[in-house]
Write a structure and sequence with these properties.
- The protein is mainly beta.
- Helix content is 0%, strand content 48%.
- It contains no helices and 15 strands.
- Strands 6, 8, 9, 11, 12 and 13 form a 6-stranded mixed beta sheet that branches.
- The radius of gyration is 30 Å and the shape is rod-shaped.
- It starts with a strand and ends in a 10-residue tail after the last strand.
C-alpha cells in the first residue's frame, strides 16, 4: 500500500500512476513465468475552501467577523489552521477550527491537512482574506435643536448617525 499527495505520482517500470486504486503492471517472461506487480495507491487531495467574501470589515456595529472554512474537503478528515500575516514573511497562528471568529484586522489564510498512510498532505486557500478595520469615528446629531426652559421641561429629540448602533442614551 502506498499513499501520495495530489500532484505526485508513483512509477513502476515505464508506467506512472497518480490516481487512487489498484494498479497492476504485467511483466511477461520468455520462459512462460510472467510476473505481476500490484500497487494499491491512495491519493490524498485536501482542499482548503473558504466560502466568504475576500474582504470583510470590522466596525462599531460589527466588532467581529467569521471566516468559514467548513466547506473544505474531504469533510471529517482534515485538521485546520488559520494564519494571519504579521509581516512580509511572518505569520501567526490565529486558530485551529474549521471557522474562525476574529476582531483583529489583517490578512488571513486557511490551511488544511489530511493524514493517511504515514503521509500528511496540506493545501492552502488560493486568495488572501482581508479583514479591514473601519476606524471612522461615529458621528451623531440630535434634532431639533430646542431649548429647555422653566415652562418647557422636556423636548423630543431625533438622532441621525453614520453608524447603526443603539439604543442611544443621554445624561
Amino acid at each position: 500500500d502506498t499513499t501520495i499527495c495530489s500532484g505526485q505520482s508513483v512509477s513502476i517500470g515505464s508506467e506512472t500512476f497518480s490516481t487512487s486504486g489498484v494498479h497492476r503492471v504485467f511483466y511477461p517472461f520468455a520462459a512462460g513465468c510472467d510476473s505481476v506487480v500490484e500497487l494499491r495507491l491512495t491519493v490524498l487531495d485536501p482542499q482548503a475552501i473558504y466560502t466568504g467574501p475576500d474582504t470583510l470589515s470590522l466596525s462599531c456595529a460589527q466588532p467581529t467577523v467569521r471566516l468559514d472554512g467548513t466547506a473544505s474537503q474531504p469533510q471529517g478528515a482534515l485538521s485546520f489552521r488559520w494564519e494571519r500575516r504579521v509581516g512580509l514573511f511572518q505569520v501567526e497562528i490565529a486558530g485551529f477550527d474549521s471557522a474562525l471568529v476574529t476582531n483583529i484586522p489583517g490578512v488571513y489564510f486557511l490551511q488544511v491537512a489530511q493524514a493517511g498512510g504515514g503521509k500528511v498532505c496540506a493545501a492552502r486557500n488560493s486568495s488572501p482574506i482581508t479583514v479591514l478595520a473601519d476606524t471612522a469615528t461615529p458621528a451623531v446629531a440630535l434634532y431639533p435643536a430646542d431649548t429647555l426652559t422653566c415652562n418647557r421641561l422636556s423636548v423630543a429629540l431625533s438622532v441621525d448617525s453614520n453608524v447603526t448602533v443603539g439604543p442611544y442614551g443621554y445624561s
